[in-house]
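Risk register update: the risk of archive-format incompatibility is retired. Evidence:
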Amino acid sequence: MARLGTAVVALLLVGYAVASIAQPATKLHRIGYLSLTAAPETPQSVLVQELRELGYIEGRNLVLEQRYAAADLKRLERFAAELASLKVDLIIASATPAVQAAQRASRTIPIVFVAVVDPVGARLVASLARPGGNTTGISLLSAELSAKRLELLGEVLPRLSRVAVLLNPSNTSNALQLRELQSAARPRGVQLEFLEVTLPGEIEPALKKAARDGANALMVFDDPMLGAPNQRARLVASVQSHRLPAVAGFAAFADAGLLLTYGPSFLHQFRRAAAYADRILKGAIPADLPVEQPAEFELIVNMKTARSLGLAVPNSVLLRANRIID
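Archived output:
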């Protein structure tokens, strides 16, 4: 009987050993994150959190290679090449220049983009429905929101007649935004003054000119250079010094002190990017994944700024706000 018990134990041990050998080791996924900004912000932390909820946990089955270019395009190119050389499983790229750098670095590594205004116009994908190539993601579609932002300015400023538009002429996404804005401004009798800036040092002189020319308000076009965290505070301080009611697309601008922001939820964008990454890591092909259009939009009103400008924001705007800064 004792011998029988020993034999059973031995068989069990052999069974466990075979099972452990047959059990596949946990696959280690390597994801690159490429950003034009200087440092991680809330959306990036949401990305990590969402990946965790999908089962990708740093230190266990995920290595997240994060690269932040601090608005340096040469550094962005270098980081993109570095991620490609590491043979990451995919790259999540934030903003059009980052996506373009990733595409130049590799035509085979899957790329998921976020914070891109016009992926077709920037030639990142062939079409929204059929992206083609190795790239897909979530579009901001800010071009279609320019009219809405102008409408919001008009509700707060009933006598709105002249709007200065701050934009970076090197941004390939401007064309759609400009067409949409011009179409919306014409029937309203609003004159547009375009302030083209390519370097941070050009922003203050441009805003000074707009104030001198009698602009009633300012619209800030979506752009990585204008929205970079290290630049945002300086831009808002300059806007406030010239007492210009302003609207932008990124919620962080309202947090920094602009009067209004209206645009897609960045947190939702990064959550969806994690979902796209999950599908690709499980075998989906980027060329077959349609570019997703934003489903959640946020209106944020900074009442502290409104009071400093002596503006009474109508209830029609406040009731639609997702958040009021007071």
